[in-house]
Amino acid sequence: MAFINQLENAFQEINNAENALAMAKYMKNHLSFFGIKTTERRQRFKEIWKANKPEVTKNTRAIALELYAKEQRELHYCAIEILIKELKGNYKKEDILLIEKLLTTNSWWDSVDTISKYMLGQYLVEFPDAIDTTIDKFSNSDNMWLNRSAILFQLDYKKKTNFELLKTICIQHQSSKEFFIQKAIGWALREYAKTNSEAVKQFVLVNNLKPLSRKEALKNVSDA
Q1: Distance of alpha carbon 198 from alpha carbon 53, whole angstroms
Q2: Angle between the 197-206 and 163-173 helix axes, to the nearest 10 degrees?
Q3: Which chain regions cross the lipid bilayer (predicted)?
C-alpha cells in the first residue's frame, strides 16, 4: 500500500542508530526502533497520513495490522494511532478480536496501556453488553498483558467507572508477583481516586494489596 511504503521510507530516511539503541535499552531490548523522537515521528506520520487519508480510512484495519507486523516500534505506534482515530464511533462487534491480537502481539507496557485505555475502553463504551464477557475472559487469561488491560480499560471513564468491577479485578490479582500487574492495580485505583478518593482509600485499607499497588493507589490521597 502506498501509505505504508511512504511511511517506511520516510522513517528510514530519518532513522538514528544511536537513538535506536537507547530506545531499545529503555524497553529492555524487547523491541527494535528506527530511533526517531516522538515529535518528529508524529509530524512525518501525520503528513503522510493526511496525504493518503482516503486509503487509510478505507483500509484502516488491514493497514494497522500490516504496520503492527513490522519490526520497528515506531510503526506499531502509528498503527495504534490510526486505529484510535479511525475506529472511534465506528467499532464493529468483531473488533474485539483485533484488540486482543494487538494486546498480545509485540506486547509491552507502552502499547498495552494505550490500547487498553483508548481502544478497549472505547470499544466497551460502544458495546457495553460485551463488558462482562470480555473482561472476564481477559482477567482470567494466562496472558499477563490481557490481565493488565482488564485492570486499566476504565482509566478514562472517571465518574462512569464501574468501581465494583474494578475492585473485583483488583482483588482477583492482588497477590500477583508481576510488577506490571501490581503497578496497574495501583494506577487504576489512583486514577479513580481523582473521582472518589474516599472510596479508594477505604478499599485499600481493607484489602491486602501488594506494597507497590498500595503506594501507587494512595499516592495523591490525603491522610492515607
Answers
A1: 46
A2: 30
A3: none
Q: What is the pLDDT of residue 223?
A: 66
Q: Name residues of the chain where pLDDT drops below 50.
A: none
Q: In the structure grid, which three cell numbers stand for residue 191, read together?
A: 486514577
Taking 3-state DSSP, the helix, strand and coil percentages for the chain, each rounded to the nearest 5, stand at 70, 0, 30
DSSP 8-class letter at 93 = T
Give the C-alpha separation, 58 to 159, whole Å: 35
Q: pLDDT of 174-207, one tens digit each?
A: 999 999 999 999 999 999 999 999 999 999 999 9
Distance of CA 178 to the CA centre of its chain: 17
DSSP states of 120-159? IHHHHHH-GGGHHHHHHHHHTSS-HHHHHHHHHTTTTTGG
Q: How far apart are CA 201 and CA 133, in angstroms?
A: 28
Domains and CATH numbers, the chain: 128-223 (1.25.10.90)
| 166, 196 contact by CB (below 8 A) | no
Alpha-carbon span 7 to 79, nearest angstrom: 11
